[in-house]
Structures are given as structure tokens and as C-alpha cells.
Model the fold of this input.
Amino acid sequence: MSTGETSFLGRAWRGFWRSLDMFRKIILNLVFFLIFFIIMIAIFSGTESFKIASDSTLVINPKGVVVEAFSGQPAQRLIDEAMEREDPETRLRDLVGAINKAAGDSRISSLLLIPDGMRGIGLASLHELENAIIQFKTSGKPVITYAENLSQHQYYFAAQADEVWLSPTGSVLIDGYASYRNFYKEALDKLSVQINLFRVGTYKSAMEPYIRNDMSPEAKEAGRYWLNSLWEQYLDGISVVRDISAEKIEADINNFAQILQAANGDMAQAAVDMNLVDRLLSRPEFRAEMISRGKKGSGDSFRQVNFKDYLAAFKLSNIPKPASDITRVAVIVAEGEIVDGKKPAGLISSEVMAQQIRKVAADKNLDALVIRVNSPGGSAYASEIIRREIQVVRDRGKPVVISMGDVAASGGYWIATTADKIIADPATITGSIGIFGMIPTFPDTLARMGIYTDGFGTTSLAGGLRLDRELNPKVAEIFQRATERGYDDFLQRVATARNMTVEEVNEVAQGRVWTGEQALERGLIDQLGGLSTAIGTAAALVDADSTSLEIDYQEPKLSPFEEFLLGMTSQAIAYLPAELFVTSDFLQRPLVRDFFARLEFLANSEPGFATYARCLMCEVE
Done:
């Protein structure tokens, strides 16, 4: 009896398992065939390369922040693009490269600038785009801008066109440059937080918000000097392309309320009255005008190609050049705050960048190195690690040229002191040669909650770095001396690099900020120019008999298989409902974001005491 029951249960279990296994195989086969089907579509759809029709308009429509190099990991970036996140990035060199290629491309008949989606860019980067558009205009092809609304830097980009068209419901808002910061001293006093600050340099005001409730007279004096230089460059740039005097542009900005009143409150008409805009066109009118000037494309629009597709088409048709008679220049982008250790892209981490530089030094096929710096500085220790690796490249006989972007200040200038040449844009924010260190302590804060600290140590310095105790005066003296030594080292490195005396460097240092134009006058840089100027200078320093130049960007790249898989993943994600992905709009609000950025700087500070070559005055609104 028991044997029969066991046999029956066994047969039932085996039958259930076979059914479950068959169901599992059916599901796996369905998934396999689905993946296989998607792969076949991807393969066969990718066999036909993108074709650019004749009489096409190249559309330059940057989205999000314009950067020197993408932040984050390449895989995450592809997924973000598929999810159409609100804060994408556009690489400056992609914009410049597309414009430069289009100048000599007979298939491209005109250039269209659409600046509305561009939310973050500095004046130095705008100069790079300006120079590319000037070169494009020499081809005789027209350049047109169409926009819905234009902010200050968006307008500088838009104004480079032959004609600027604006939506009838649009606006142009130019309000000048400003440098405002939040100050936390009173708030920190209420919390009983003690700020122990060590700095050298009369104008090194990076940490003023933690020890003052307002900006010091020295900081205002220095800030006005370089900020006025930027503003003059902005006005001059608009003045040339719009044929309006800089004085009239500034007067119109100051009297904008009256101009707007005369236009019956119509922002778009006010822009026309100020000669900032040529025509007011709705989107349908804009498309009809473009069709009348060129060729009709698909649907109800003109024949066009987006700059990303345009560059992709060139990439697919790119044929490697012969290995001989080529000067190869490596380009490393140093963008973000300088930090110790290994950090993801978006920060200049000493270990990652040192590895990139060592690779260039060891590669016999690379003849020179250009480092594109866009950084307000950061850790003095990390800056020195990077500087030493740059020296190794020079010791190997390879010239090194620094190209400064929007900002190359403090630690960003420190890493430049070993280069053969330093080239900056007139609007680059640089200098800020100074050092600071800070340790916040919280004994009074804890005491208010009834928490106290007591104990003993074997020396007078033991326990001196505890944040729950008042800072030991002996420890404070040590840190101040170390900060002063760091400043002396900084001065000496600049003096050696720039062929100046320490006293001469000290006069232009003290933490003071300069524009590239002002830095050239003071001997802190060698030449004004952009990235292309720096690359050409590096190639010339090689002193080789080469007939062509090859540029090799040193940055993380995905393998073709990884690109394929991630492309598949991103396509799948694009079909998922947006509700699955939570975003925090609150944390993206400017005031909140700025506040948390300040807290992040403190939270990411090195344990114990560390010195920083960091410029917080370099932020411009």
C-alpha cells in the first residue's frame, strides 16, 4: 500500500516538474527569439550608412550643458539619452567639428543655429564656436538662427548668424554678469560651529562664506576687475556681429524697462527695436521660409541634417590614413574639480589622469600632448601628482601644451606650470594662485545637546584633529605653517615655469583671479587662442617633417560590442513608462543645488587636514 502511494506521489511530482520545465523552456525560447529578432533588425538596419542629401542645412542645436568631455560612464550616458533625461550634455568639440567639416562640404548649403536647449556654457567656449562660425562664413554659405527664447549666453551664440529670427512670443534677456554668493557665518554661529581657516593670499576668498556674512572689499575689488573684462568682451563680440556700439547695447540693457514699455510689453518686439533680432517668425513661418531658401525635405519641413547624425556619417566613412608622415597629438581633457584617488568622469581624479598621462608618455606613436583644462582647481596634493606626471612626458622629449577653457584657476593653473606653452582664451578665468585649508569643529554644537568630550593623550598634539573638540592652538599653528609652505611652493613653481622672480609672481598671485587677456599682460600665459591653436602649437613644437596631423583623444571608450549591447538596452528602456524613473526636481533648483554643492565640498574634504588650490570666486552668473 505504502509503495503504491509513494509511486503515485512520485509520478505526480515528476509530471509537475516536466510541465514546469517545459514551460521554462518555452519562456526561454521566446526570450531567445525576441533577442535574436532585435539583433537581426539592428544588424540589417545598420548596414546602410546614413546618407547626406545635397542642399542640406546643418542644424546645430546643442542640448544641456556644453562640456569639454562627457561626465559619468559611457554606458550610463547611453541609457540617459535613451530615457531622454532633462539634463544631457553636448561636447564642445562635436559642435566645432561639425561646423568646421560643413564649411568645405558641398552637400551643406547653410547652417542653422538653434540655441534654446543650450543651458550651460562659458564665454571662452562661446569664442570657440564663434571662431568656427567665422570660418564657416568664409565659404559664402548663410548662417541663420531661429529661437523661441534666448538667455544671455544663448544670445551670444545666436548673434553669430547672418540673420537672427525669433518667435513672436519669444524674448531676449541680457542682464550682464554678476558674482553673488551665499554667506553662512551667522547660521554657523547659531549652530555653534567653529570654522578654523588657514589661507595665504590677500584675495584668496574661497572660504569667505564660512567666516563672513558679506563679501570682503578685497574680493569685490578683484572680482570687479576680471568680471568687467568678461563683460567688455561680451559686449564687443555682440557689437561686431550686430553692428551696434557696445555703449548702446549696455545703455539699452539699463533702460530695458522703458524700451519694453514703448513696445507695449512685447518682449519679442523689444528685441527687434534694440536691433538684437532681425525678424519675428512663428515655427510654421520659419519652416516655410527655410523651404523657400533651400530644398523641401521629408514631411512639412526643409532638407536638414542634425550635427550628431552628420558627425556619425563622417565617422562611418572615415578611412585610416597611412602611418607615415603624420604628427600625432594626444589630447587629454581635464574637466571638473581636482580630487584625490579614482573618481568617475566629471571630476579630475589624480589617479585616473595620472594613468592617462603615463599612457601618452609610454606610447611611441604619440608625438605631443595637449591638456585641455576646464577646472576651478581642488586638492593641492592631487594637482601636484598630475603636474609631476606631465613633467615625465616632457622628460621623454614630447612637448606639452596647456589649453585653458572657460576656467583654469588655482589647481587648474598649478597643473599647467610644467607645460612648454600655456594658451588661454581671452575670456578664460585663470590665476587664483593661492592656498587654503579648513577644519570645522563642533564642540559647542554638541554641548547644546548635552554631549561633551573629555579624555587625555600621550602628547600635546594627540587628539588634536577631533572635530568634537576645539582646535588645539599648536595644531592650528602647524596647519598655518603648512599652508604657507604650500603657497611658497606654488609661487616657486610659477616663477620657474614663467621665468619670473618669486616676488614678481607674488604681485599677481595672492589668490587674485584674472581673465586670459589680463593673464597674458602679466606673463602668466604665453598666447591667446583656443584648442585648435594649442594643438597646432604642440605639432609645431614636435619639429617633425609631417604632412598631416592626427588628433588622439585619450578618454574611456566602449568596445563595438559594448556599444551594440548598450544600444539595444537603451532602445528597450526608451519604451518603458517614464513613471518608473523617479527624478528630484527640487534638488535641481539653483538655490538648493548651490547650497548642497557647498555641503558636498565640505563632505568630500580629505580626512584631517588638507590644503586646497580651489577658486570659488570663479563662478559667474
